Automatic annotation (TrEMBL):
<dbReference type="GO" id="GO:0003700">
    <property type="term" value="F:DNA-binding transcription factor activity"/>
</dbReference>
<dbReference type="GO" id="GO:0003677">
    <property type="term" value="F:DNA binding"/>
</dbReference>
<dbReference type="InterPro" id="IPR000595">
    <property type="entry name" value="cNMP-bd_dom"/>
</dbReference>
<dbReference type="InterPro" id="IPR050397">
    <property type="entry name" value="Env_Response_Regulators"/>
</dbReference>
<feature type="domain" description="HTH crp-type">
    <location>
        <begin position="147"/>
        <end position="220"/>
    </location>
</feature>
<dbReference type="InterPro" id="IPR018490">
    <property type="entry name" value="cNMP-bd_dom_sf"/>
</dbReference>
<dbReference type="Pfam" id="PF00027">
    <property type="entry name" value="cNMP_binding"/>
</dbReference>
<protein>
    <submittedName>
        <fullName>Crp/Fnr family transcriptional regulator</fullName>
    </submittedName>
</protein>
<keyword id="KW-0804">Transcription</keyword>
<keyword id="KW-0238">DNA-binding</keyword>
<keyword id="KW-0805">Transcription regulation</keyword>
<dbReference type="InterPro" id="IPR014710">
    <property type="entry name" value="RmlC-like_jellyroll"/>
</dbReference>
<dbReference type="GO" id="GO:0005829">
    <property type="term" value="C:cytosol"/>
</dbReference>
<dbReference type="InterPro" id="IPR036390">
    <property type="entry name" value="WH_DNA-bd_sf"/>
</dbReference>
<dbReference type="Pfam" id="PF13545">
    <property type="entry name" value="HTH_Crp_2"/>
</dbReference>
<dbReference type="InterPro" id="IPR036388">
    <property type="entry name" value="WH-like_DNA-bd_sf"/>
</dbReference>
<dbReference type="InterPro" id="IPR012318">
    <property type="entry name" value="HTH_CRP"/>
</dbReference>
Amino acid sequence: MHSNKQTLSSLSMFQALDKTEMDKLENISNIQLFSKKSHIIMEGDSRDAVYFIHSGIVKIYTVDVLGNENIIHYLRKDSMFPYSIFFVDDPYPVTAEVVEDAVVSALPIQAFEQLLFENAELAKYIIQILSQRIHLLNNRIREFCANDVNLRIASLLIRLTEEHGIRHRNGILINLQLTHQEVAYMAGTTRESVNRLLNQLKKNKTISIHNRKIMIHQIADLHHFLL
């Protein structure tokens, strides 16, 4: 595995730091390998670190009183989590579960907060990330407020192509293995509703599904649900 300094310097948010700042970051960081299905943090645990992903995929979610997941994000390299723990004493608001073996840096939260005080460029970068996430969550709230279930599912598929899409000759592959139940959790609907729409989209050749990965062949068909 790379040294802490080499690995951390590969992340976009830290590339503006000078050698002294990188050395300081190296001294407080802890790089760990997490295997699939392991948990990095648990909702309700005391906050002690902020995490940065070097490789792999991490699912961020909460659990309601009935035990249902509310999947918020699937995060990849260059992502930070959780977002809402800076300068507060609240516990972790989410659970982070590894869905593809991941290398992650853990930085003690108080030391990282001090680094933000000392480095305006890094603080600006973090604020930009937080602003982007707020914008994304606002869009999701609008989707959940829509009465049309098909609109919510179509909006979700479009968003997943933007966040996890890989272009192929015959379409865009959403590079995540997703069950119909996970799609339902993200769209705020039932698995039965997801089954119906995905089957319809497959019949219309708008999508295909292989090994639980969705290939979008005609993304314009999904946009029609938004009109």
